[in-house]
Every structure is written in structure tokens, then in C-alpha cells.
Amino acid sequence: MINKYGLVETKVFEEKLTGRIKEPEDMKKTYEYTTTRRDIDTNHHVNNVVYLEFAYNALPKDISINFDSLEIYYKKQIKIGETIHCLYKQEENSHIIAIKSQDEKTLHAILKFT
Q1: 77-107 pLDDT per residue, tens
Q2: Between the CA of residue 12 and those of 8, 73, 104, what are the distances in Å?
Q3: Which of 22, 45, 83, 92 could form a disulfide with 77 if both were Cys (CB 3.0 to 4.6 A apart)?
Q4: Is 2 helix (H, G, I), strand (E, B) or coil?
């Protein structure tokens, strides 16, 4: 591939990624949702963009959505008909949302807005 197309060494991000987001203790459930057909992509999983909608709905209503950065780590796919719980916690200038299974034992994704 490199011989045919060449090697591109352009950086996508200016800053180095900080690593995994740690799930804070004492998070509060702020949103619950059962996935429907409109959430599903061609792989029969919830589309990655829908995770952002879940997180947006989990933010407190008085929080502005004008953030400088977003980190998201996808851990386990969500399928049609699954009920998810979104848990929220503010830490300093960051807003963290964990998207978990209904029993809150499985972490599907974690997002951090700054």
C-alpha cells in the first residue's frame, strides 16, 4: 500500500490524546432510553452519532453545549431494543457521561465534554 499510494505523516490532532476517561464515582442517572430502529446502522448496532444524542440528553438543561473538546470511548455496542442508562457527573470544568446497560453493569461508552 505504501509503495502504491505513499506515506502520509500529517497529524490529525495537534495535541496528544490524554488516554482513557476514568468513570467517576457517585454518578447520577439523568437519562434512560430504549433503542429503536431509527438508532441502528447497517451493522445492526447503534450508530456512533446517536451516542452523542444520548449524552446531550443526559446533560443538565442549564449546561451550554458550546464545548472546546469532546472525548469519547466506545466500549461495547448497543443493539436494537436495549435500554440504556446515562449517568452524569461534573468534575471541575468537564462534564462526564457514562452510557451503561439497564442494570448499569456494562459500560457501552464514556464521553467527556470540556
Answers
A1: 999 999 999 999 999 989 999 999 999 999 9
A2: 11, 17, 34
A3: 45
A4: helix
